[in-house]
């Protein structure tokens, strides 16, 4: 491997190290806690070394959000896409979503959820980035719901956007109840809430055709 390639690989490894620390810190203390100085202390790298990868605090924060979104996609959406379309895929998306911070060993919970709370009323590049990513998630979830409608598992009059709205509400309630209130029943309640949502929109089984109906008994 040439010296240039070795240098490039080392640069990629260092950037990955910085972003890993940044995502963990954002999970624990929010994206506003991210600065070149705090990441230098956390990683043991020099400030000048961090500036070589991220020229500003905002660039660092957006890059950390992108990394969190990438991990979210890998943990939540990609495995679910291996499941057949319909309710099985919807259930996989929901289950992967509520358990991904634990599986990803994010000690402070979902950093994307943290970013949504931090920047909901703060205009700027971070809020724009959060909104873009949340809209993308909602759009992909709506497609998964529509597939369940098209497969005949959910009723034809199901409003995919409304389904996603209520699904997202269950997830937010889970994060709040589990992390803020420390309620050990939060996971079971979230799963029960999602199943009630599914049942409210589940398509009725087709009525049996006359040929398959049991013959009425004579008196």
Keywords:
mainly alpha, Tetracycline Repressor, domain 2
Could you walk me through the main structural features you see in this protein, from its secondary elements to its overall organization?
It is a single chain. With 219 residues, this protein is mainly alpha-helical. It has one domain: Tetracycline Repressor, domain 2 (Orthogonal Bundle), CATH 1.10.357. The protein is built from 9 helices and no strands. The chain is elongated, with a radius of gyration of 23 Å. The mean pLDDT is 89.
Question: Mind sketching the topology for me?
Answer:
Blueprint: H1 3-29, H2 36-43, H3 47-53, H4 57-80, H5 87-103, H6 111-118, H7 125-150, H8 160-180, H9 186-201
Helix pairs in contact: 1-4, 1-6, 2-3, 4-5, 4-7, 5-7, 5-9, 7-8, 8-9
Summed up:
The protein has 9 helices and no strands. The protein has helices at residues 3-29, 36-43, 47-53, 57-80, 87-103, 111-118, 125-150, 160-180, 186-201. It is elongated.
Query: What is the CATH C level class, in words?
Result: Mainly Alpha
Helix content: over 70%
Spatial separation of the terminal alpha carbons = 90 Å
Count of domains:
1
Structural class: mainly alpha
Largest sheet: none
Q: What is the H/E string?
A: HHHHHHHHH
**Segments where pLDDT lies below 50 for 5+ residues?**
none
The CATH topology is Tetracycline Repressor, domain 2
The CATH superfamily title: Tetracycline Repressor, domain 2
Strand content: under 5%
Mean pLDDT: 89
List how many beta strands DSSP finds: 0
CATH architecture name: Orthogonal Bundle
- Distinct helical segment count: 9
Q: Calculate Rg over CA atoms.
A: 23 Å
Shape: elongated
